[in-house]
Amino acid sequence: MGRRRGLMSEQFKMELAKELGFYDTVKAEGWGGITTRDAGNMVKRAVQLAEEALAAKRL
What we know:
Layout: H1 10-20, H2 23-29, H3 36-58
């Protein structure tokens, strides 16, 4: 099975990392340096933002 192409842009992921407070780790060690919890929180925040955007679009 091949690698899946990421759905989030690199810039969006960096913005989320800054917002969630682990940007320095990403900058120093790359994405492999973050914890599983940080990755999960990043995905949770991305989903939350997408849901908010959809709700605003429906109005």
